[in-house]
Amino acid sequence: MMRVVSYSGGLGSFMAAHLTVAKYGKASTVLVFTDTKTEDEDLYRFLHQTSEALGCELITLADGRNIWEVFMDVRFQGNSRIDPCSRILKRELFRKWMQERFAPEQATLVVGISYEEKHRLDRVAKNWAPYKVEAPLCEVGVARKEILDVLDDQGIDPPRLYEQGFPHNNCGGFCVKTGQRQMKMLLDTNPDRYRWHEEQQEKLFALLGKRHGFIRKHINGSTHYLGMKEFRESIEVGQQPELFTEDGCGCFI
Length: 253
Fold this sequence. Notes:
By secondary structure, the protein is an alpha/beta fold. The protein has helices at residues 11-24, 41-54, 67-74, 84-101, 121-128, 136-140, 144-153, 160-163, 180-189, 191-208, 228-236; strands spanning 2-6, 29-35, 57-62, 107-110, 132-134, 215-219, 222-226.
C-alpha cells in the first residue's frame, strides 16, 4: 500500500508527509505537487529541500496554464463558491494521475488538513472515494511550533509567505476565495505581484464584457464585489479594509 501525499508546499502537507514517513517508511511514501504556475518562487526551494530531507520521490504535475489562463479559457472568474482554477489545475489533474497508477486498494491519499480543519475531512473523503484518505494532523493535533521545530532540526527555513503573515503557501499569497485581509497583505508585501494579478483580471473583464470581482465588501448590510483595481484604489485613498474577513483556500476539497 502506497501513501500518496498531496504535497502543496505548505507546513501542513510537510508535517503530514513527515508523520507518514515515520509510520510507513519513505519507500512507501510519494509526494505529489500540483503546480498552478502562479506560485511564490520560494515554494519550489521548500519543496525540494523537504523532499530530499524526507527521502521521498517528488512528483510535479502541471497542466501548463496559470489560474488566469484557466479563467480565460472557461470564460469564468473563480470565486469563494466555484473554483475552476483548483478544480482543473489541482483536483482533476491529481485524480487522473492517481487513477492511472493505482487501484483503490493499492494507494491511500494523505492530506495535510489540520485538527482545526477537521470538518473538511469528510468532504475530501467523499470526493476521493473509493480511495481511502488519511489526515495525520487530525489524529495527533500538531501545533505550528512543532512543525517549525522539525524544520529547524533539519536546517530548513519555512516558506517565506508564512513569515510575511500569509495563512498558506499557495498561489503566491493570492486566492480568489479569500477576503480583503489577504488581498491587503498581498498588496503590502508584494505590490508587483498584486499588480500582475490586477492586470490579468482586467484582461478577463475585457474578455467577459463585464466587471464582477471576487473581493467582498459589505455596505449597509449588502454584499458588493470589488475588482482588484477598485480595491487597490480604495486603499490608496485611505479607506480601511475589512480585516475581519476570512482567508480562503481549501483547494483540495
